[in-house]
Known about the structure:
Number of domains: 1
Radius of gyration: 11 Å
Oligomer: single chain
Low-confidence stretches: none
Mean pLDDT: 93
Helix content: over 70%
Amino acid sequence: MSVCIAIQELREKAKQEMGSKFDLREFHNVVHKNGSMPLDILETVVLRYITDTKPS
């Protein structure tokens, strides 16, 4: 799977789960703040972000 497709899928998952709390700039900060990393680690980071941010 390409990196671009993986990030797009993670972005869509975040949009769906976070609803109105989704902020594209914040999502990009989460994706880029740790620099280069394997996709499985990136997925873990993004899923943690979703869990910590989504509405209760």
